[in-house]
């Protein structure tokens, strides 16, 4: 009986894998650390178990839907890249951990992809409404901006700023989920922390990794339009600003880290952001861009780990 159930679960997982790949699940699980951090930092501790559970489900649903939406909107472009064999298939790239763009690759149909994104969007909207109706507006705005971001691929390199706003929607919604009247200063600092991390640690290195195919398809990303020298400078400046806003964010939080934990926080920013972006600035090659993207992808989880560790130690020892 047990072996039959195990075989059934394995078969279900095998069939579901392309859908998890559509939503870049390994990456989105890392991204969810930002809304969790935002919720804990605004409160100075964990919200109630019910709110935390509902928030996690809602965040997972929202990120799953938005990542899938990216592939839906870019379906034609991704198909052209695959057919032209101009697709970035580097195994070192985090977003290639699963099948990349499974709809364009013909693994799942676009109708099923739309259904997948729609069902997760519905779940996200229900969860957002139960948490705080403001979260519904933030999620809806993020969905709309994600569509705009995808449509600007051949229009302007300034689309990276749109993507920065989209990534900041998650943690902003999480703050409103646990506090109905958060301080404006906290919201601003949180927004720019995530905004600049996304630009310097995710968007620019991801576009850098895809620079050859983007040139072939006449895309207007920052590395293509403004060149890798300027792209490297912008990435450095963005991550330095993200680091500064991260420090200010913890000062603005009632979490009250001590000096030792602030030093750990600085070390985390150095290891996951400043060190790899400095390497990119010096090397200015695709390998360094992929290394920055991968390292920076784990940055939100590293920051959240500091928060968890501080809460655990302060409760029992400090």
Can you tell me the overall shape?
Answer: globular
What is the mean predicted local confidence, pLDDT? 91
Strand content: under 5%
User: How far do the termini sit from each other?
Assistant: 50 Å
- Largest sheet report: none
Poorly predicted residue ranges? none
**CATH architecture level-2 label:** Orthogonal Bundle
What count of helical segments does DSSP give?
Answer: 14
Secondary structure class reads mainly alpha
Radius of gyration: 20 Å
Percent range of helical residues: over 70%
Whole-number count of domains? 1
Describe the structure in your own words:
- The mean pLDDT is 91.
- The protein has 318 residues and is mainly α.
- Helix 11 runs antiparallel to helix 12 (259-283).
- It has a single domain (17-316), classed as Orthogonal Bundle (Tetracycline Repressor, domain 2), CATH 1.10.357.140.
- The protein has helices spanning 2-22, 25-31, 33-43, 49-73, 75-83, 110-131, 133-151, 159-178, 184-209, 211-216, 222-252, 259-283, 286-297, 299-316.
Characteristics of this structure?
mainly alpha; 0% strand; 318 residues; Tetracycline Repressor, domain 2
What is the compact description of this entry?
The chain is an all-alpha fold. It has helices spanning 2-22, 25-31, 33-43, 49-73, 75-83, 110-131, 133-151, 159-178, 184-209, 211-216, 222-252, 259-283, 286-297, 299-316.
What layout of secondary structure does this protein have?
Elements: H1 2-22, H2 25-31, H3 33-43, H4 49-73, H5 75-83, H6 110-131, H7 133-151, H8 159-178, H9 184-209, H10 211-216, H11 222-252, H12 259-283, H13 286-297, H14 299-316
């Amino acid at each position: 009986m047990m072996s039959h159930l195990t075989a059934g679960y394995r078969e279900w997982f095998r069939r579901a894998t392309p859908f998890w790949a559509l939503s870049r699940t390994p990456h989105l699980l890392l991204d969810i650390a930002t809304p969790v951090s935002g919720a804990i930092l605004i409160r100075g501790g964990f919200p109630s178990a019910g709110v935390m559970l509902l928030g996690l489900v809602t965040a997972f649903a929202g990120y799953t839907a938005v990542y899938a939406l990216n592939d839906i909107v870019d379906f034609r472009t991704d198909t052209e890249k695959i057919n032209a064999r101009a697709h970035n298939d580097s195994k070192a790239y985090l977003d290639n951990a699963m099948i990349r763009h499974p709809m364009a690759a013909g693994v799942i149909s676009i109708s099923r992809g739309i259904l997948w994104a729609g069902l997760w969007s519905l779940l996200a909207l229900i969860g957002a409404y139960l948490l705080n109706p403001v979260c519904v507006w933030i999620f809806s705005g993020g969905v709309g901006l994600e569509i705009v971001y995808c449509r600007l691929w051949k229009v302007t390199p300034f689309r990276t700023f749109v993507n920065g706003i989209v990534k900041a929607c998650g943690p902003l919604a999480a703050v409103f989920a646990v506090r109905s009247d958060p301080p404006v200063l906290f919201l601003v600092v949180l927004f720019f922390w995530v905004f600049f991390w996304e630009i310097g640690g995710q968007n620019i290195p991801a576009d850098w990794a895809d620079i050859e195919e983007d040139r072939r398809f006449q895309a207007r990303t920052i590395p293509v339009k403004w060149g890798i020298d300027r792209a490297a400078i912008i990435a450095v400046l963005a991550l330095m600003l993200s680091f500064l806003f991260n420090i200010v964010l913890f000062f603005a939080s009632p979490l009250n880290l001590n000096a030792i934990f602030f030093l750990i926080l600085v070390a985390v920013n150095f290891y996951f952001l400043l060190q790899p972006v400095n390497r990119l600035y010096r090397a200015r090659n695709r390998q360094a861009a992929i290394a920055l993207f991968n390292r920076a992808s784990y940055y939100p989880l590293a920051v959240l780990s500091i928060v968890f560790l501080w809460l655990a130690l302060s409760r029992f020892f400090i």
